[in-house]
């Protein structure tokens, strides 16, 4: 009998010709519109944070690879993608050490401690956002410039619809332009890198909840960052088609509830973390079971 050595690895599994680096290059291309939009509105502040998150992610992964005695300094391009996504969720008013610590935490603690790419049970960017807010809430909160601006903060500013879609300087770097985020999502879908089942379910369910809460149906950029780049994460979301719909719907509802009723604009990221913990259960419940007859 011929002995065959099979290499067993955790899912998801990639079809032949869809190498990791090719996929990561497409994700980098998809992130470029949102990054450029953030740089357009926040200028050099955004550039510095993008460079900090990307370079720190690369160095952190390289040092980890050296520590575990891997042959190459940079195994794949995933640290660059992680660094870019981290930059998207960072505000520009934070000190430089915040994105640096965030990149180290995302790369080492959330990603590498659990086996590396595809084996982490939680989205690194969403987990990092929650970690930074929990650890340095005062630093992550937007400071008030003066007493007058603080008092006027209660007045709701009416922003034209076109500005909300194309872009405006509000929120984190990647949350400025909904259009730029959607362009990246469409590109990834056309390239076959992601399915839009999760993102569409996420956005629609969040819009329904916003309507129930009598809020603006046009969601903030944080919802689109979470929908496009977090509900499609290969390792932390369901692999079944039905499971992706379920994941997106429940995550969208949770995101809206946390954002509106919890008065927390970072609700989408917390919702992603909550649903990451439920992803294995969703996969189990939505995977077709086959009965096998036992022979005597």
From TrEMBL:
Pfam families: NQR2_RnfD_RnfE. Keywords: Flavoprotein, FMN, Membrane, Phosphoprotein, Translocase, Transmembrane, Transmembrane helix, Transport. The chain crosses the membrane at residues 23-41, 47-64, 165-187, 194-212, 218-235, 242-263, 269-286. The keyword Transferase does not apply. The keyword Repressor does not apply. This is RnfABCDGE type electron transport complex subunit D. It comes from Clostridium gallinarum. The lineage of its organism: Bacteria, Bacillati, Bacillota, Clostridia, Eubacteriales.
């Amino acid at each position: 009998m011929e002995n065959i050595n099979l290499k067993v690895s955790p899912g998801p599994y990639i079809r032949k010709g869809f190498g990791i680096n090719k996929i990561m290059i497409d994700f980098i291309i998809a992130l470029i519109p949102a990054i450029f939009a953030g740089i357009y509105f926040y200028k050099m502040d955004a550039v510095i944070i993008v460079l900090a998150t990307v370079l720190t992610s690369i160095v952190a992964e390289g040092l980890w690879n050296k520590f575990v005695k891997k042959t190459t300094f940079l195994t794949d391009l995933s640290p660059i993608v992680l660094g870019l996504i981290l930059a998207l969720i960072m505000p520009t008013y934070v000190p430089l050490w915040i994105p640096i610590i965030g990149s180290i935490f995302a790369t080492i603690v959330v990603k590498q401690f659990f086996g590396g790419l595809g084996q982490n049970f939680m989205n690194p960017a969403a987990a990092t956002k929650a970690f930074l807010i929990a650890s340095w809430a005062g630093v992550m909160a937007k400071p008030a410039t003066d007493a007058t601006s603080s008092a006027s903060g209660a007045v709701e500013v009416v922003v034209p619809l076109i500005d909300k879609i194309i872009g405006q300087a509000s929120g984190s770097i990647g949350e400025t332009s909904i259009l730029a985020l959607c362009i990246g999502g469409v590109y990834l879908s056309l390239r076959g890198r992601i399915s839009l089942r999760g993102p569409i379910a996420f956005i629609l369910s969040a819009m329904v909840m916003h309507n129930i809460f009598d809020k603006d149906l046009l969601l903030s950029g944080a919802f689109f960052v979470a929908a496009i780049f977090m509900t499609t994460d290969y390792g932390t979301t369901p692999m079944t088609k039905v499971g992706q719909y379920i994941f997106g719907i429940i995550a969208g509802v949770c995101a809206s509830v946390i954002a509106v009723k919890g008065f927390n604009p970072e609700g989408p990221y917390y919702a992603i973390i909550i649903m990451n913990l439920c992803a294995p259960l969703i996969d189990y419940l939505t995977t077709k079971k086959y009965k096998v007859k036992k022979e005597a």
